[in-house]
Amino acid sequence: LPQLGPHLPPRLTEQPWHLQYCTRRDGFSLRTLYRSGGQPGSPALLLIRDTEEQTFGVFSSSAIRCSSGFYGTGETFLFSFSPELKVFRWTGRNNFFVKGDVNLLMVGGGSGRFGLWLDGDLHRGGSHRCDTFDNESLSAREEFCVRDLELWGLA
User: Fold this and answer.
1) Does residue 37 belong to any structural domain of this protein?
2) Quick count: other Cβ atoms within 10 Å of Cβ 54?
3) Could you list the residue range(s) of the whole structural domain that residue 137 is in?
4) Band of the pLDDT at 14, cuts 50, 70, 90?
5) Is residue 91 domain-resident?
6) Is 7 within a domain?
7) pLDDT band at 1 (very low <50, low <70, confident <90, very high)
8) Is residue 118 within 8 Å of 151, Cβ to Cβ?
9) Where would I find the TLDc domain in this sequence (predicted)?
């Protein structure tokens, strides 16, 4: 987390973060992740490590939750550590920040492709270049298997 500090909105740099959900402790379930999230206006940091030891994720300006449409603000960004930190910020081309239902969590979009998606069991996911963040694929493969996942929120 320390490497991400300079990229977070200034109002959050001194805030204490705490672990709200992790697959090692809480199991693999998107529903459980939604229930563990903070207040809707509270930011969230989702960290993923895949089975190829790549680490990547998303900073969301809003809590990760179930929704009928996309939510979030231009503060939202994708990132990867491969091997050094790369941050992919909002391009302004659309407002497809975060959207989640019980079967799928999507971050970033446009042209039918998501910057990051995770299935309802949090076992599989994918990452494609998308209009929202003009990101590279965050993982070595466009589809990946999740090894560990953590959701951090403000204490």
Assistant:
1) yes
2) 20
3) 15-154
4) confident
5) yes
6) no
7) low
8) no
9) 1-155
DSSP category for residue 40:
T
Q: How far apart are CA 45 and CA 38, in angstroms?
A: 11
Number of domains making up the chain: 1
The answer to whether the beta carbons of residues 61 and 97 sit under 8 Å apart is yes
Return the number of other C-beta atoms located less than 10 Å from residue 42's C-beta: 15
Block residue for tokens 């300079």: 6
46 with 151: CB under 8 angstroms?
A: yes
- Cα–Cα dist 39/37, whole Å: 7
Q: Residue 6: inside a domain, yes or no?
A: no
Strands (E), the chain: 17-22, 44-50, 55-60, 77-81, 85-88, 98-100, 104-107, 116-119, 124-126, 143-154
- Tally of helices (H runs) and strands (E runs) in the chain: 2, 10
Contact between 38 and 12 (Cβ < 8 Å): no
pLDDT of 155 over the 80 cut: no
Q: Taking 90 as the threshold, does the pLDDT of residue 39 lie above it?
A: no
Cβ-based burial of 50 (10 A; exposed 0-12, middle 13-18, buried ≥19): buried
Tokens of 128: 């494609």
